[in-house]
Structure formats: structure tokens, C-alpha cells
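During the reporting period, we have paired protein sequences with C-alpha cells. One record among many follows, to show the layout:
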Amino acid sequence: MPGEPHLPERPDARVSRASSGGTSDARAGARRAERDARGAAGVAGNTRFTSTLGVLLLALLVLQIASAVFFALLTYNVGFFNGPTYDIVRPVHFFVGFALMPLLGLKLASTGWRFGRYYLRGRHYKAAGPPSWTARLIAPLLIVSGISLFASGVEMWSFQNQLGWPWTAIHNVAAFTFVAVLTVHLFLHVVQAHREAAADLAGRPAIMRKRDGAPVREPFGGRVTRRVLLGSALAAGAALGAGASGWPSPAFAWLMPRRAGSGALDFPVMNFEGGMQHVDVAVWRLRVTGEVDNPLALTEDDVLNLPWVERTYALNCVTGWSATRTWRGVPLSTLLAMAGAHLDWSHADIRSTSGYHWDHRRSDLVLAGTLLCTHVNGARLNDAHGYPLRLIIPGTVGESNIKWVDGIDVRRGTPQLYLGEHVDFSNPTVTGRLLPQDPAGRPG
């Protein structure tokens, strides 16, 4: 107070205050060191997580690419020696494709987090350094092609390709682009990713350096979090894959938009080039022409009076559903023998009243037990399912099993199979709502 004499501070009070200040500084320093350690460990954990995701994705993508190759060959009716059958390839392709989606989402989140932290000047991410210029240049193309690939695949699966050939073209172009860019991405990262993933899966904690150069070990919680995220993504992927593919049992197909029922004619209808036909059997004829000695022009009664057999075959659609039915019909070999097919014939073009057609090898048409069917599970075919006559070739994709058959053109030489008009975009194969009106057959 004013007027009072100033008393000197006691030495023990100065020591106490200095000690208190030193303790506060030490605590602040400890907190900074802890934040520094957590930040360094976060970078290491992000690297481990991204690498482990990359290795898992690589294994699944290799399987998916292999299934896509076989899927395309079988869809285009291109033969290969002792390859997997369509009823194996298709569910694998759908299962793996959907199972990849949660893992890809995590990969985008992990790399997006690192990207954001680096460019928002997160100190530890800046210290870890940026990816190479090559990696930064190809990243947008890899992301865009990947999203386009999976989005177009889901569209064709879910909407049964009702928007026509543009989605197929987008899917194919995106697939080739994605694989090409992915190859470069792997070249840049596969060694480090393998090293980090192996250490992570072996349970070895990540070690980073703090600012002072001291090593810091990743906390146990980071490893637990990564395993929970990976396990959740794998479980979600398995649920999506089973739901979309119906594998390992159709009972799991909770996502599948179309599936066969139990009735004889209770299975989905997919039409190409011309739409559903209403064939007037009074004028309809089944014509067998080309490399034959006795061309045929058979009426419906003529076909029904021929010797018939019954066979149980599965009808498999590229969009995911299958229908196993007992088909009754005339073996194609019987018709070819009646027409006197030349000994050196090699393929035949099967045509529909809609204008749709498909070229098949001799081995597919004769040795496989191909039928021209009039009944399914004892019921006469209806208009939607190909009345009066449809082709059933066991083991081939549904789109090559022609409905409303009215022509068999027997040929020599090299078969076109799918290639030819079917890949000419001026005459695209479309389905669903964009189909033109019925161009042939009876009115109504």
C-alpha cells in the first residue's frame, strides 16, 4: 500500500515460483512431445493401412480381371480349351465385383485423408513427403476409370442394361483404362506396399521418427482400429457379393433384382434387337438352308410331329439370374440330318423373326446336345419365351439362345460367332425400355 515500506521478497518464494514455472514448461513440453508422437504414429498407421488395403485389393482385382476375361469370352461365345464354365465365371465376377466396393471405399478414404493432410499442411504428412509426380498425375485417371467401371457394372446388373449399348461401351473402355493405369500404379507402389502390409499383418508395430529424431512406436490402438476396419469391410463385401451373385446359394441373393420363380414359364425375359414377337404360325416357317442337300421349310405342325427329347438345362443370363428347366424339343442334329447337311459344314447362323441372330460352331450345335424347344417343364412356350420355337444350347450364355427361331443357315469356313454385326454400333443390341416396336409377326 502507498506509504508502506517495500519488503524484500523471501528467497524461498522466488524458488517456489521458478519451480512452478519450470513444471508448467515441462508439462507443456510433454504435451507437445505426445502430440508429436501421435502425429508421427498417425502417418505410419496411414501408410500401413493403405498398403494392407492395396495388397488385399490386388489379390481380389487379379481374380476379378481373370473372371472378366472368361466372362467376355463366354459372353461372346468364343471357345477356349478346358476353361471354367459360365455358371462358375458369372457368380465369381459378380461376387468379387461387389465384394471389392467397401475395400475400394476405404482405400479412397485412406489416400484421401493423406492427400488432404498433406495439402492442408499437416506437419507430419508434409515431413513424410509427397508421392511422385507420376503417381500424382495418374491418380485422377485411376479414380475416374475405377468409379466409371464399377458404376457401369452396377447399372448393367441392376437395370438389366435397359439403357442399351452405351453402358456396355463405357464399362469396357473403363475396364481397359483402369487395368492399364493400375499396372503403372502397381509398378510405383508394389514393393513398399508388400513390405508394409507384411509387417502389419505380422503384428509388428510401425515406427516413425519425431522431430528430434527419436523413434516412436505406434500405439496398440492403431493396429486394432485397422483390423476392425478391414474386417468390417471384408464382411460387408461378402454380404454384398452374396446378395448380388446368389453364391454360394440362391437363398443369399437378397440384392438380385431378377430371379426365376418356380413355375414353368416363371423366369425373366430379356430381348434383343426387335423386342418380343407375336409370331403368326399360319405363315411362320422354320427354314434350314445353306450347305444342305434338301432345304427345309417346316410348319409348326411339322415341327411338333418330329421325334422329340427332354433335357434338363440351366438358362444363364449375363445379368445374373439362372433358370433350370426341363426343355422338350427336337435335337438340332435331327433337323440337320433331315436337310442333308454337307459333311464339311462348320457353323450355322441361327436367326429369329425379330432379326436377331447368332453364329454357332458345329461342336456347340451338335455335340453339346442342342435343342430347338417347343415346351418347358411340360408347358407350351408362350410369346414372351419364344413361341413357337426357341434354341437352347447347354452351357452358353442366355443371349445366344435365340427365341422365335425361323432360320438355320448352315455354312462352311470360319464362324463369326459373336464378332461381326453384334459389335457394330450402327446395329446395337439393346434391351428393355428402349426396344423398338415389334417389327414382325401378327398385330396386337
